[in-house]
Amino acid sequence: MKKIQDAKIDDSTLRDGLQMPGIRAPSPEDRFIIAEILNDIGIDRMELFGTWYDVDRKTAQLLLDAGFKSRVAIWVRANTADIDEALKLNGIKEVGISHPISKIHLDYKLRISEEEAFNRISGAVKYATDHGLRSFYHAEDCTRADWTFEKKIIQAVIEAGAECYRICDTVGASLSAHTSDLIPLERSVPDRIKAINKLFGDKIELEFHGHDDLGNAVTNTLTALNNGATWASTTMLGIGERSGNAETEKVIMNLYYHYNVNRYKIERLTECCQKISRFCDIKIPNNKAIVGPNVFTHQSGIHSDGVIKHPETYELYPPEKVGNIRRLFIGSYSGKNVILHKLKELIKEEGKSKSFDENDGRVKGLIDYIQNNLFGSGARHSPLTEGEFKMIVRMFALI
Ligand SMILES: [Zn+2]
User: Fold this and answer.
1) How many domains does the chain have?
2) Residue 50 has what pLDDT?
3) Domain boundary pick from 280, 309, 342
4) Which domain holds residue 334?
5) 366 and 239, same structural domain?
6) 243 Cβ contact partners less than 8 Å away, ≥ 6 residues apart
7) 236 C-alpha to center of ligand 1: Å?
8) Are the beta carbons of 185 and 195 closer than 8 angstroms?
9) How many angstroms is it from 277 CA to the middle of ligand 1?
10) Over the stretch 206-258, which tens digit does the pLDDT of each residue have?
């Protein structure tokens, strides 16, 4: 049985991530900057577009030329033309071959039979193998596919030379629960992985690609890794189709926190997400786990007081671990201690050496003004900016 400590990350930010609706497509140079950070973080494999447009080909070549430690896989459809196009890239070693296997996709999207799908998939994987490429097969929508058909497909891609079978929870239908009257095998993450491994475990690696339509992508990915999958297919910030994918940073931090996986350079996670936010013109939600600006921001009196005394009271780990920063806000429900703390910091910053007396009438006046006149009265709703706080401190002649 594979251990979760040996899990590998296949980051698809530069493929599935860029399929996010409304995203600004970054230039090849900007994509390269993102890839450099991903490589430095220690991502095991990156997935890229490579075949269709100039920007994608240029990006793929830049990454392949860089000689990253991270493996680079080019995502193609299950046809020889796509593979031929990918083969034009210098230094290409690996492709991810995508084709759906659910009846919904075969009947309504492609309008082909299971037999035709079988031939396309096994043919494409064999073609890649015959041309010296490593490959993983991306079984689109397999969490809604027929299990009997899926078993045939897995057997076929093994015989054709695929190294890895990617379970694609394309519309986020899976659940981290066991099979029951309500949950069929296809949708049960732990049971289907065990079932596949029981039949084919030593012949092919498993990867889980989870979408977040029901908000279960990260949990499902961790369940997959805990039950015998080797790879997690994820994107930074969870960017991707519709509600997106499992977040790379969340999976990595769960591996770090719960399973002592220390091999990823987690201190660059926030910077990586900020770059993606800038290049792709998407806002990081304030409360986004790990990398959001609120994760280490404290405003309410009880929380700020705890953090000032001992950060671990309300922080799972120090912000600098993931390249984030701690902030203390003064706003509604801020207590006396945080105002005093901010005041001391400001006095230090301003280089004033005068001793600080909490019983000074001006200090008492400042606290009363902020707590009662501004927020308590309801006159002010949003927290004070650093500049506003400084102005008020000046008003009380404390700096
Ligand atoms: Zn996807």
Assistant:
1) 2
2) 85
3) 280
4) 297-395
5) no
6) 172, 211, 212, 213, 215
7) 13
8) yes
9) 19
10) 999 999 999 999 999 999 999 999 999 999 999 999 999 999 999 999 999 99
